[in-house]
Amino acid sequence: MSRLSPPPRPIAVHPTSPDGAPSGPRRLVIRGQLHRPLALTVGDLRERWAQRRAEVVFDCATNGPQHHTFDGPLLREVLDAAGPAFDARRRKDRSRFLLAVTGGDGHHAVLSWAELDADFGDAPVLLATAMDGRRLDEAGSQLVVPSDRCGARYISAITGIWVGTCAVPEG
Ligand SMILES: Nc1nc2c(c(=O)[nH]1)N[C@H]1C(S)=C(S)[C@@H](COP(=O)(O)O)O[C@H]1N2
Ligand SMILES: [Mo]
C-alpha cells in the first residue's frame, strides 16, 4: 500500500503571531490538490500579480443589471503559483480539475479549470482587489466572471478556493 503524505500547509506570505494564528488582514486560502497551497491577503493579490481591469454588467435576479469596474489579477495566474497537481502538458489531465470558491457567508459556486484555461474557455476570470476604484482589503476579494450573464458567481468576501478532481459517482 502506498503511503500518503499529509497535504502541504498553506504558505502565508506575512508572519504569523507567536501562537501561530494568522495576524493582520484576513487571508483567502487556496487549498486542495496543489503543490504549493497559498494563504493570501488582498494586498498580496495586488502586489504579487499584474492587475487587469474588467468593466462588467451582470444581471441579478432580485436587483436587475449591475454595472461595475473591477481590478485584480487573473485567477488562472494566481492558481498557477499554487501549482495544481496535474500534468500541465496534458490537456486531458487539466480538463478533469474543478474549483470551488466560497464567500464569507458560505455562498459557494464551482468553476471548471477548463473555463479558465487558454486551451479551452480562456475566460478572463479575476480575483478583484478593487471594485469601482475602492480597495477590497477590508471586505475581501471578489470573484469576477465577465463571461457570466448573471451575478451568482461574482462571489464576494472570498475566504477559500478549493482546487482538485472529484470522482464521478457510479451508477
Ligand atoms: N458571498 C456572496 N457573494 C455573492 C452573493 C452572495 O449571496 N454571497 N450573491 C451573488 C449574486 S446572486 C449577485 S447578483 C451579486 C450581486 O453583486 P452586487 O451586490 O455587487 O450587485 O453578488 C453575488 N455574490
Ligand atoms: Mo443575484
Give the SSE map.
Elements: E1 11-12, E2 28-32, E3 38-40, H1 42-48, E4 52-60, E5 64-72, H2 75-82, H3 91-94, E6 98-103, E7 108-112, H4 113-116, E8 126-128, E9 130-131, E10 134-135, E11 142-144, E12 158-164
Parallel strand pairs: 1-3, 2-12
Antiparallel strand pairs: 2-3, 4-5, 5-9, 6-7, 6-12, 8-11, 9-10
Molybdenum atom is lined by residues 60-62, 151-152.
Number of strands: 12
- Beta-strand content bin: 25-35%
CATH class term? Alpha Beta
Strand order of the biggest β-sheet: 1-3-2-12-6-7
Q: Which radius of gyration do the C-alpha atoms yield?
A: 17 Å
> Helicity level, as a percent range?
10-25%
End-to-end distance: 27 Å
**CATH fold category name:** Sulfite Oxidase, Chain A, domain 2
Quickly give the CATH architecture. Answer: Alpha-Beta Complex
Structural class: alpha+beta
Contiguous runs where pLDDT drops below 50 for at least 5 residues: none
**Number of contiguous helices:** 4
Calculate the mean pLDDT score and round it: 92
* List of distinct ligands in this structure: the ligand Nc1nc2c(c(=O)[nH]1)N[C@H]1C(S)=C(S)[C@@H](COP(=O)(O)O)O[C@H]1N2, molybdenum atom
Largest sheet: 6 strands, mixed
Q: Helix-strand pattern, N to C? A: EEEHEEHHEEHEEEEE
CATH homologous superfamily grouping: Oxidoreductase, molybdopterin-binding domain
Keywords:
171 residues; Sulfite Oxidase, Chain A, domain 2; 33% strand; binds the ligand Nc1nc2c(c(=O)[nH]1)N[C@H]1C(S)=C(S)[C@@H](COP(=O)(O)O)O[C@H]1N2; binds molybdenum atom
Overall description:
There is one protein chain. This protein has 171 residues and is α+β, with helices and mostly antiparallel strands. The chain has four helices and twelve strands; from the N terminus they run E-E-E-H-E-E-H-H-E-E-H-E-E-E-E-E. The chain has a six-stranded mixed sheet. Strands 4-5-9-10 form a four-stranded antiparallel sheet, with no helix packed on it. Strand 2 (28-32) and strand 3 form a beta hairpin. The radius of gyration is 17 Å and the shape is globular. It starts with 10 loop residues before the first strand and ends in a 7-residue tail after the last strand. The site of molybdenum atom has 5 residues, from loops.
